[in-house]
Amino acid sequence: QQALQTVAGVSPVNFGRRGFDDLNIRGFRSTESILIDGLVQSPGMWTRVVPYGYERFEVLKGAASVMYGQVQPGGIVNAISKRPKRDALNEVGFSVGSFGERTVQADMNRPLNESGKAALRINAQVSNTDDPTDFVYRRDRWIAPSLSLDLGAQTDLVLFATYTKSNWLRQQGISPYGTVLPNPNGTLRRSLLTADPSFGGYDVESTSVGYALEHRFSPALTLRQNVRYETEEGTGNFVANQALQPNRRLQNRSATRQYLDFDILATDTSLLSTFTALGAQHRLVTGLDARTGHSSQASRSCRIGALDLFSPVYGMQATCPAALSVDAPGKLTVLGLYAQDQIKFHPQWTALVGVRRDWSTNDIDNRLTNVQSRQKDAATVLSAGLVHEFKPGWAAYGSYAESFLPVTGLDFNGAPFKPETGKQWEAGLKYEAPGGGWTGSLALFDLRRKNVSTADPVNTGFSVQTGEQRSRGLELELGADLRTNLKLTGAYTYTDTEVTRDNNASIVGKPLNLTPRHTLALWATYKLPQMPQLTLGAGARYVSEQVGSYPFTLPAYTVVDLSVGYSGPSYRITAGVKNVFDKAYYDGAINANVVSPSLPRNFSLGLTYFF
Q1: Alpha carbon of 547 to those of 14, 190, 198, 445, 449: distances in Å?
Q2: Rounded to whole angstroms, how far apart are CA atoms 431 and 297?
Q3: DSSP readout, 131-145?
Q4: Which of 83, 166, 350, 369 has the fewest CB atoms inside 10 Å of its own CB, making it the most exposed?
């Protein structure tokens, strides 16, 4: 989330530091559209990306189903893993920080033959941290070995695996009354835990194994295949806020015990061919995306007493039923065929056209009702774009793209829900100075989301698909290397969202929740001419107020961060302070009963040793 705070259009919203990455892109939720090396994950998996294990994060904004299938309309994030290199690499790092942060990490790469094409790389990290919220903690253990094999000059094959074990107490947030809304009893402590530590936390374990293969039949024809098998299992216990009692003091709560068991086998096989036809140069990608997986998130709904927000007493006994409240495992099978052609028909004109056909089957076994159901969906999506490089370094473009996402469940009449669909129009301008130094981009977009599930106004407890939402806006990004030891990056986003259709007439015409109209991020680094080993960094983020259908507004805020780094011959020291002026603000709200306090001022100090 922190890595993407300076990307235009991306809002790393805070749902109470509940244990996994929450992201909004262009106004729409994208939490379930975080890909690893181009492969989607199981929609139910509790993903929290470990930044140390990745080379970079790629953000693809807007509808992207042609290449990636069933994803949310706002966009995707693709995490590119660290892989073996030809040269030896050894580093060990240590860091400490606020709220008991303690991290040890290592990255070691060993060539296994003279050319270095066969190599072994191991990344690992152990991290413990507490939280400004009382009793909240997190413990992570993570390791990722990968092995590249030398199968000849035309073939690249990397085998990889990851193992993660995480244990944490979920921080759900606090009541809006006494924070962003008045409370006759006073102001709430921002460090208040409204859950109960005695109820337990999360204990989740995940593993993955797979390979990435690339074979070049000729300079004009390349085969690529990515395969990953991933599992996740564990338990999760959390206490959530319900409505506050009329005295504005006693917080009603619910407690849930979850039992998680997921697996997914994801594959993507494609051919990249380059050729000339009809006077144009083509780069054609054709592929088959196939995956299957099981998902089970059984749970028990428990009862727990109300909490006095101004005189909390913990250790309340929760009452849980012997029988499960939810137990409906599913099996999802997806098959997608896609083709995308990049056509350069003039030195200054390039077109991109794509099409995809997807089929999916979702088998659900409701063990509580002894009802087995099968939902089948199919969709065809398109994309197209045109780029004109009208002068050196300058390019203008226009594009259209579609997305779709199957929705499980039945309406009151027993009819399965239709997939959600998204359509986006975009136009923009890009600049890259010849020889580097300056980069910039301007994007205007209009994104529509249809078939949104909303509450059935006639049949309580059921949903109907009448909701429609719209997001449109402007994104501006700028990067500058001034070659005077000063580098600047900046991003501004204007986002105008609206509920255009819903059964709840009171929210029609209102903005979507958690979509600030304006966001601005700036960051600068400066190397001292007298001491080039020393790098100073400073930045600021501004987020305007966030309104929607909630009975409260999250006020605007500005946060300033600072950093310093020193690079020696075999080591690097880094230090940073976030929220330098200790600004108290709220950067999320999971529902109408909860707001999420941001982190107060915090620091980190790290040492990395290279050998």
Answers
A1: 15, 21, 35, 21, 19
A2: 47
A3: -SSTT-EEEEEEEEE
A4: 369
Write the pLDDT tens digit of every residue in 427-475.
Answer: 999 999 988 789 999 999 999 999 988 777 777 667 788 889 999 999 9
pLDDT digits 0-9 by tens, 352-399: 999 999 999 999 998 998 989 898 999 999 999 999 999 999 999 999
Name, in order, each residue with C-beta under 8 angstroms of 460's C-beta and a sequence gap of 6 or more.
Answer: none
- What sign results for the dihedral spanned by CA atoms 594, 327, 409, 78? positive
Tens of pLDDT, residue by residue over 574-584, are 999 999 999 99
Confidence of residue 554 (pLDDT cuts 50, 70, 90): very high
Handedness of CA 242, 244, 245, 249 (dihedral sign): positive
Full strand arrangement of the beta sheet holding 24-25: 10-11, 24-25, 28-29
Residue with tokens 């880094």: 574
From 308, 305, 306, select the one nearest 183 (Cα to Cα).
308
- How many CA atoms does the CB half-sphere of 49 hold within 13 Å? 28
Q: Please, what is the end-to-end C-alpha distance for the chain in angstroms?
A: 31
| CA–CA separation, 84 and 95 (whole Å) | 25
Residue 277: partners with Cβ closer than 8 Å, 6 or more residues away: none
Q: Is the pLDDT of residue 594 over 80?
A: yes
**Coil, strand, or helix at residue 198?**
helix
Q: Would you say residue 409 has pLDDT above 80?
A: no
Beta-carbon contacts of residue 346 (< 8 Å; ≥ 6 apart)? none
DSSP 8-state assignment for residue 67: H
Report the C-alpha gap between 552 and 514 in whole angstroms.
11
46, pLDDT greater than 70: no
Mean pLDDT across 74-99: 95
For 189, residues 6+ apart whose C-beta sits below 8 A from its C-beta are: none
Give the list of residues 6+ apart from residue 415 with CB closer than 8 angstroms, or none.
Answer: none
Asked whether 373 and 295 are in contact (CB, 8 A), the reply is no
Beta bridge partners of 488: 480, 524
Give, in order, the Cα–Cα distances in Å from 245 to each of 194, 241, 311, 318, 447.
Answer: 14, 11, 15, 19, 39
Rounded CA gap, 281 and 276, in Å? 5
Do the Cβ atoms of 35 and 58 come closer than 8 Å?
A: no
In 185-316, DSSP assigns E strands to: 202-218, 221-244, 250-277, 280-303, 307-308
Query: For 335-339, what is the mean pLDDT?
Result: 97
Buried b (16+ CB within 10 A) or exposed e, 157-196: bbbbbbebebbbbbbbbbbbbbbbeebeeeebbeebbbbb
Q: Count CB atoms within 10 A of the CB of residue 108.
A: 16
Rounded distance between C-alpha atoms, residue 488 and residue 481, angstroms: 7
Instruction: Give pTM, 2 decimals.
Output: 0.91
CA distances from 462 to 40, 372, 419, 504, 605 (A): 29, 19, 17, 14, 51
pLDDT digits (tens, 9 = 90+) for 212-246: 999 999 999 999 999 999 999 999 999 999 999 99
Residue for token pair 């080591």: 571
Q: What is the pLDDT of residue 384?
A: 97
Q: Quick one: pLDDT band at residue 48, thresholds 50, 70, 90? A: confident
